[in-house]
Amino acid sequence: MDNELALIIIISLFALWKLDFIATLLNLKALEPKLPAEFTDVYDAEKYEKSQNYTRVNEKYGIFESIFSLMLMLGFWFSGGFGWLDNLVRGFGYSEVVTGLIFMGLLFTGQMLIMLPFQLYEIFVIEEKFGFNKTTLKTFITDQVKGLVLLVIIGAPILALILWIFDAVPLAWLWAWAAFTIIQLLLTYIAPSVFLPMFNKFEPMPEGELKEAINDMAEKCDFPLTELFIMDGSKRSTKSNAFFTGFGKNKKIALFDTLVENHTTEGLVGILAHEIGHFKCKHIVKRMVIGIIQSAVVFYLLGLVTDKNGPVAEHLFTAFKMDNISVYAGLIFFALLFAPVKKVLGIFGNLSSRKDEFEADAYACNAQDTPDHLIQSLKKLSADNLVNLTPHPLPVFLDYSHPPMLVRLEALKKLRK
After folding, report:
1. Beta strand 242-245 with 202-204: parallel, antiparallel or unpaired?
2. Where are the alpha helices (DSSP H) in 281-338?
3. Are 352 and 239 in contact (CB under 8 A)?
4. Which of 44, 102, 222, 382 is deepest in the core (most CB within 10 A)?
């Protein structure tokens, strides 16, 4: 049974990798050398060729990185690395919770250091080559240090709480799920004002045409906008974005400075009307509720995997060459065992997300009385970010949270009628 379970996990991991590999190859094959007529006003031949090269480089790099990651994990597993590390940290003589924190901390640190060259290559070679990177080595190092500090200050206590609940509390999965949900909602609320400013500067939007237009749109949509910010996104990349934060009657908007520089006022208002549409159509609440329900299922299954008296945990830990059943190692093994289910849930989640994007586009069209401003902004964003305009349907089905741009624009043009 133990070997059978190990074989099932291995086959699942290879099957998932193979599926992603096939999707990548199909995506590369689907690259269309002829520029779609819809984009002739924002692309020239040179820029379109650059966007296709960007897709090729990223897809091929993704294949190499995924092979390396899979081989690294399997090599560590087959060599008895999990059991060796567990025996090492248990030898320190600490409590189960502290031992778990050390075990997971060492695993995370090792993986981070091994994968660090890949991260550096992606930023300072690929993104640099295509003109996106604005991150300096100093900024990169500072970001890593700040991220680690937050992980220790915020992540470690949360993990310790989860480990303690599963080790000492009856109906542990239920209490762990409740604690995780409350903490997640709290962090979502405080992150924009506490954590994000640690990495970026947020300046109040100056008075002028843009601020007035955004406030007018918010008032028209009965959207309780309280603050408008410009974020220094150009500190790290030339790519553009915008996001909303806040609960209840307090909503905040942050626009990347690169977005403000590259778009018209009407286009920016169209983008923001789209984001307002997500709130007005209840997409944010829906996704939050679905996420909470899914996490309940995950914690219930995690309880089965980490139950020291249950048959699942015994076979699972033997399959990973572990002498002792523990909650902290169970978290790692459960992630591998749960991977196929996570992929299926992700497919359904992306399907729902793509539907939400169409609805938010329609809301923005109605709010501006025309789809043209949003269409032009989306086309400009595609060109600025070198988006793949002709993805294959399989990777769209598997991984795209947004509809392909051509499909999205086609739906917007129909709203003119």
Report:
1. unpaired
2. 283-305, 311-319, 327-337
3. no
4. 382
pLDDT-above-90 percentage for the chain:
62
Closest by CA position to 353, among listed 270, 255, 286, 276:
286
Give tens-digit pLDDT for 189-242. 887 778 888 888 888 888 889 999 989 998 999 888 878 888 888 888 888 777
Examine the residue annotation and report whether 361 is marked as an active-site residue of this protein.
yes
- Identify which of 310, 322, 340 has the alpha carbon closest to the alpha carbon of residue 9: 340
Cα separation, 411 vs 371, whole angstroms: 10
Query: Using CA atoms, how far apart are residues 328 and 104, in angstroms rounded to an integer?
Result: 7
Written as one letter, the residue type at 273 is A
- Residues 333, 82: Cα–Cα separation, whole Å: 10
Q: Which of 27-31, 199-203, 253-257 holds the top average pLDDT?
A: 27-31
Q: At what angle do helices 2-29 and 339-368 cross, to 10 degrees?
A: 40
How wide is the angle at C-alpha 133 spanned by C-alphas 129 and 135, nearest 5°? Answer: 140
- Rounded to an integer, what distance in angstroms lies between the CA atom of residue 300 and that of residue 304? 7
- Is residue 403 a contact partner of residue 350, using CB atoms and an 8 Å limit? no
pLDDT of residue 246: 65
Instruction: Of 38, 54, 24, give the one whose Cα is nearest residue 384.
Output: 54
Q: Of the residues 127, 357, 361, 384, which is catalytic?
A: 361
How do beta strands 225-231 and 202-204 pair?
A: antiparallel
- On whether the CB atoms of residues 309 and 394 are closer than 8 A, the answer is no
Q: Which one of 275, 356, 357, 384 is the catalytic residue?
A: 275
| 240: phi then psi, degrees, rounded to nearest 5 | -115, 155
First to last CA, the chain: 62
What is the CB neighbour count within 10 angstroms for residue 208?
Answer: 9
Judged by DSSP in three states, 273 sits in helix
The helices-and-strands tally (H runs, E runs) of the chain is: 18, 4
pTM: 0.89
- Give the residue extent of every domain in the chain: 1-92+276-417
